[in-house]
Design brief:
270 residues; alpha/beta; 6-stranded mixed β-sheet; 5-stranded mixed β-sheet; 13 strands; 31% helix; globular
């Protein structure tokens, strides 16, 4: 089984509503226009789409941050850009939100997030019912929504206690099957150290323990824009795809059902 994984395309950097002037969206928009925009290369996404067509993976995974400030117009643009992957029925497409996709506590933004992610997941994995479990190719995939709004420069996520219980249950029920956790947040940084609190996953300590013990075989994530892969003593992997439009990397992960092992390689799109 072949998996192609990407993250953090960060569409937008604009707001459509007057009320955005009075919350964090104005900060995020200015940050995008003054700093991030000059690093974003949209050709990377089109090249990635072409590579996905050529590689013919069984599963394509996006680990969030398809927008910059979670404005409805950004979600519409992101869906348009990602539509060729949605329309390609030769693979399963799995999508989980990032912190930029739940940037503020605004009903219109939240509704746009839900509608867009449901469309990306082909209405098979409704976001309002996350987390989800998917059995495919001898692997248990668990998708979790760790996004929440933050104040100021905070970009942390939150794992709901009830979601943790489901993850623990599903991991135990997997028995000999590998478990792939699909979320937005790395559990550690590239050196195997805790992330700074303002960027970390709150309530994620139990997931860290599960990864260290091998109860989670692979954690697929984004959030950090520079891609990295690291291995725990248990042999479990954490793979951060980085930002596709900024760093230009795809994570290619192949699963051998005989040895029940994963092999990884980077595909550089630019």
């Amino acid at each position: 089984m072949k998996i192609i994984h990407f993250s953090d395309i960060h569409t937008g950097g604009r707001f459509d509503r007057f009320n955005a002037l009075f919350d964090k969206r104005i900060i995020g928009t200015l940050n995008y226009k003054l700093r991030r925009r000059r690093h974003v290369i949209w050709e990377n996404l089109q090249k990635a789409i072409d590579i996905i067509e050529r590689e013919k993976p069984d599963i394509v995974i996006n680990t969030g941050d398809i927008t910059s400030v979670s404005e409805p117009g950004e979600f519409a643009e992101a869906l348009r850009r990602l539509q060729p992957i949605v329309d390609n029925n030769n693979h399963t497409f799995i999508n989980v939100p990032g912190n930029h996709d739940h940037y503020v506590d605004n009903n219109e933004c939240i509704k746009s997030k839900e509608a867009t992610y449901n469309a990306l997941n082909r209405d098979l994995l409704p976001i309002e019912n996350f987390p989800h479990r998917l059995e495919k190719g001898g692997v248990t995939f668990i998708m979790v929504d760790e996004s929440r709004p933050n104040s100021g420069t905070q970009s942390s996520g939150y794992l709901k206690p009830e979601d943790l219980k489901k993850i623990q249950l599903w991991a135990s029920e997997a028995k000999e099957k590998p478990v792939v956790l699909v979320g937005h947040y790395p559990l550690k940084n590239k050196l195997g150290e805790p992330l700074a609190t303002r960027r970390a996953l709150e309530n994620g300590n139990e997931l860290v323990s599960m990864l260290e013990k091998g109860e989670i075989t692979v954690n697929l994530c984004g959030h950090i824009h520079a891609p990295f892969i690291r291995e725990e003593k248990s042999g479990s992997l954490e793979i951060c795809a980085g930002s596709l439009t900024i760093g230009g990397h795809l994570n290619k992960l192949e699963f051998d059902s005989d040895s029940k092992s994963f092999s990884h390689s980077w595909i550089k799109v630019n």
